[in-house]
Specification:
By secondary structure, the protein is α+β, with helices and mostly antiparallel strands. 27% of the residues lie in helices and 20% in strands. It has two domains: 138 residues, Metal Binding Protein, Guanine Nucleotide Exchange Factor, Chain A; 148 residues, Peptide methionine sulphoxide reductase MsrA (Peptide Methionine Sulfoxide Reductase, Chain A). Strands 3-4-8-7-6-5 form a six-stranded antiparallel sheet. A six-stranded mixed sheet has the order 16-15-10-12-11-17. Helix 10 links the parallel strand 15 and strand 16. The chain is elongated and about 65 Å long. It starts with 7 loop residues before the first helix and ends in a 12-residue tail after the last helix.
Length: 394
């Protein structure tokens, strides 16, 4: 773009020390901005500033809400908050969390519950007598299980949290049965730094009766019936087949698998560590705990299509270069149905002709699972060149 010669004397008289080349470049940018700016700002209906800030805080540029949430949330958190799934009891992050603090919405960070209102209901899910503020949650009828329940959702983000029942301790006699995966715990000593200082008093002052009194009150359910509870829509599988690094790297990407964690189980040593188990004297196996959606992948499929194809179940107490009982092949059933299915899957593997020797996989009832140290979780994701002897066989 050139500046007309007839205009240059006018500019020179107004700016005696002007640099023609420099000013021409500057004016080009100004004129280009005047031409293209209106087109760039025509983006459909106008949005008020407050709404723009709110939208930006939730959505990534150019991303759809569901796509953005899938990227930000774990598969289990997404299944719970956006699809109404219920995580397994006792195999979740906060069922036994009793330190002072608050529980915020995993989707948008809204404070929802306080540890001061949390009690041990014996159900295996986080249980609260009330929310931090009544307006932070909303309830609605839920008929999805064939019986009428009352669903609890986050009022602001709209995500599924859990259900509320009338069998809790006084004074409310309510039990908010909430999924850990829908929450993020903020410890009291970190609340100020994370911007939750105003709620710190609620997190440290208990409003519940003494611990001995926090037992579930009689429900309005039929006399003699078991008190209502959260019904898990997910399942837990605990499997062992050699070094847990390689097992997790394969299983964590399987469709229908919501969460994986590696650890130790099947032995006698309490609170085992990696160094303990590595000696081969604890009786524990390196194992992986898999939380999965049975609507998307069944336990049978998990065993037939993945477990019995990703390791060699015919080698006793050995996988690849690893030797010892801690590397044994095992299915630790978390239910009677899994026990039956595990034995059947073992028989199918033995009859498949895939293995030269007999299948020696142990099938037993699951005991306590101790989560391994953080450096072992999803190890091969952070160390893609690390050791593994696992691969999916044809």
């Amino acid at each position: 773009m050139r500046i007309p010669r007839s205009v240059e004397p006018l500019i020179s008289s107004a700016l005696p020390n002007w640099d023609g080349g420099l000013l021409r470049g500057w004016l080009c940018m100004v004129l280009a901005a005047l031409v293209f700016l209106p087109a760039c700002t025509k983006r459909g209906p106008s949005v008020q500033p407050d709404a723009m800030v709110e939208a930006h805080s939730v959505l990534s540029p150019g991303a759809k809400p569901a796509d953005d949430l899938r990227a930000r949330l774990s598969p289990l958190a997404y299944a719970v908050t956006q699809e109404g799934a219920t995580e397994p009891p006792f195999a979740n992050a906060y069922w036994d969390e009793h330190r002072p603090g608050i529980f915020v919405d995993v989707v948008d960070g809204t404070p929802l519950f306080s540890s001061a209102d949390k009690f041990d209901s014996g159900t295996g899910w986080p249980s609260f007598s009330k929310p931090l503020r009544p307006e932070s949650v909303e309830v609605r009828p839920d008929h999805t299980s064939g019986t009428e329940r009352t669903e609890v959702r986050s009022a602001k983000a709209g995500g599924h949290l859990g259900h509320v029942f009338d069998d809790g301790p006084g004074p409310t006699h309510l039990r908010y049965c909430i999924n850990s995966a829908a929450l993020r715990f903020v410890r009291a000593e970190h609340m100020e730094a994370e911007g939750f200082g105003a709620a710190r008093g609620a997190a440290t002052t208990s409003t519940l009766p003494s611990k001995e009194s926090t037992v579930c009150a009689p429900s309005t359910a039929q006399a003699g019936a078991a008190p209502p509870g959260c019904r898990a829509s997910t399942e837990v599988a605990i499997l062992a087949g050699g070094c847990f690094w390689g097992m997790e790297e394969i299983l964590r990407t399987v469709s229908g698998v919501l969460e994986t964690s590696v650890g130790y189980t099947g032995g006698v040593t309490e609170h085992p560590t990696y160094d303990d188990v590595h000696t081969g004297r604890t009786g524990h196996a390196e194992a992986i705990r898999v939380i999965f959606d049975p609507e998307k992948i069944s336990f049978r499929q998990l065993l037939d299509d993945w477990f019995f194809r990703m390791h060699d179940p015919s080698t006793l107490n050995r996988q690849g270069n690893d030797r010892g009982t801690q590397y044994r092949s095992a299915i630790f059933a978390t239910s009677e149905e899994q026990l039956v299915e595990g034995l059947a899957a073992k028989a199918r593997a033995a009859a498949s002709g895939r293995w030269k020797g007999p299948v020696v996989t142990e099938v037993s009832r699951a005991g306590e699972f101790t989560r391994a140290e953080s450096e072992h979780q999803r190890y091969l994701e952070g160390h893609p060149g690390g050791y593994t002897c696992h691969f999916v066989r044809d």
